[in-house]
Design goal:
The chain has helices at 2-8, 12-32, 41-49, 53-61, 64-67, 76-91, 93-99, 102-134, 143-170, 175-200, 206-228, 264-273, 275-282, 287-295, 301-322, 325-334, 346-381, 390-413; strands at 230-237, 240-242, 245-247, 251-257, 337-338. By secondary structure, the chain is mainly alpha-helical. The chain has two domains: 1-197, Orthogonal Bundle (Preprotein translocase SecY subunit), CATH 1.10.3370; 205-382, SecY subunit domain (Preprotein translocase SecY subunit), CATH 1.10.3370.
Length: 422
């Protein structure tokens, strides 16, 4: 393994890319520790101790929101803008045609996402600023201070978006994902230290800690298996003679991933479940709203059940809008491809859709189990200082696997043995 690791630094271009990624991560982590002025640190800490949607946003901000730094919103507005654009592409024919126009179309879609990020970022910055003012977190208030916070937070998100694009272009892996990955990993040392203090103080038993570690390792192994899992549908391409050249004739396969939707269903489900808590902040005098909020508080049985069901629903929903069997069948027929034993056209689309539905079900159930696992572990072990949440676990494993795949590609081109081979 050491030799394989050293092979990475024997390739000048790959070494340069990895060092560039590390330098950009350092820039990101420096920005996380640059706070905005006029913040009551104690009130902000007490607010985070209550839990809620702020902790979820802080997951993507790498701890910047807890410090209310210039990167407080993290890359979340970019993720929201990307999700909105994907939904619009699925329902607006003009955008769908634009997305199929090759590189030029993709560049236009990317530019729309950039503008959408700024708009969404400004709106989220406004809402976050007003909310923190009402909670007594921001000491200095007023129109000018509010405008300064909105500009600073939006500029921080825009800079992170640009930083991610630079990592994608000049580094290795997907830049946005690596920024989120770095933020999650940066939180682990402090969580480990706090957990160690609880064990040393006797508040948590060593057996509970060992059980947590074992289950976490098994969960990571399970996520890796699901992320790599796919159903391969055999595809045969007929031979075509164009002039003196023969095209096609080879056998390949269509990979259908078990977890086609990735981490998006968990994000959607959490956004829906955080709605009662958000509404309760605006209707604090309504007893019925407060009771409704308590029913859907994190950790309650109703919350866990609805959370799991929403994840399964959104897994099917997002898979349906991100993978179109009809388009796949049409493209296969256009280039002379067919599934052995299945007629081209609509029968092929129906066959792919049926297989996709069957493959998605175990993926959706596993995704729901991974998402609710931290809540169950906290109830069983009484350890609240360290856990691998479903969202963070999927992001960490997914980004690590994708980055390793790209490193493998660089090593293979230069005839080196990679991490996943040999």
């Amino acid at each position: 393994m050491l030799e394989k690791f050293l092979n990475v630094f024997k390739i000048p271009d790959l070494k340069k890319r990895i060092l560039f990624v590390l330098a950009m991560i350092l820039v990101f982590r420096i920005g996380v520790h640059i706070p905005l002025p006029g913040v009551n640190a104690k009130a902000l800490k007490d607010l985070f101790a209550q839990g809620g949607i702020l902790n979820f946003i802080d997951l993507f901000a790498g701890g910047a929101l807890k410090r209310f730094s210039i990167f407080a919103m993290g890359i979340m507005p970019y993720i929201n803008a990307s999700i909105i654009m994907q939904l619009l592409i699925a329902v607006i024919p003009a955008l769908e045609r634009l997305s199929k126009e090759g590189e030029e179309g993709r560049q236009k879609i990317t530019s729309y996402i950039r503008y959408g990020t700024i708009i969404v970022g400004a709106l989220q910055a406004l809402g976050l600023t007003i909310w923190l003012e009402n909670m007594g977190v921001l000491i200095v208030t007023g129109p000018l201070m509010r405008i300064m916070n909105i500009i600073s937070l939006t500029a921080g998100t825009t800079f992170l978006m640009w930083l991610g694009e630079q990592i994608t272009d000049y580094g290795i892996g997907n830049g946005i994902s690596i920024i989120i990955f770095a933020g999650i990993v940066a939180r682990l040392p402090s969580q480990l230290v706090m957990t160690g203090r609880l064990v040393a103080a006797g508040e948590v038993s060593i057996f509970a800690l060992l059980a947590l570690i074992i289950i976490s390792v098994l969960a990571i192994a399970g996520v890796i298996m699901v992320e790599l899992g796919e159903r391969r549908i055999p595809v045969q391409y007929a031979k075509r003679v164009v002039g003196r050249r023969v095209y096609g004739g080879q056998a390949t396969y269509l990979p259908l991933r078990v977890n086609q939707a990735g981490v998006i269903p968990i994000i959607f489900a959490i956004a829906v479940l955080m709605l009662p808590g958000t509404l309760a902040q605006f209707f604090q005098t309504s007893e019925s709203m407060q009771q409704f909020n308590r029913l859907f508080s994190p950790g309650t049985p109703l919350y866990i059940i609805v959370y799991a069901l929403l994840i399964i629903f959104f897994t099917y929903f997002y898979t349906a809008i991100s993978f179109n069997p009809q388009n796949v069948a049409e493209n296969m027929q256009k280039y002379g491809g067919f599934i052995p034993g299945i007629r081209p056209g609509k029968p092929t689309a129906a066959y792919i859709e049926r297989i996709l539905s069957r493959v998605t079900l175990p993926g959706a159930i596993f995704l729901a189990l991974v998402a609710i696992l931290p809540t169950i572990l906290m109830k069983l072990t009484n350890i609240t200082t360290f856990y691998l949440g479903g969202t963070s676990l999927l992001i960490m494993v997914g980004v690590a696997l994708e980055t390793i795949r790209q490193i493998e590609a660089h090593l293979s081109m230069r005839h080196y043995e990679g991490f996943l081979k040999g």
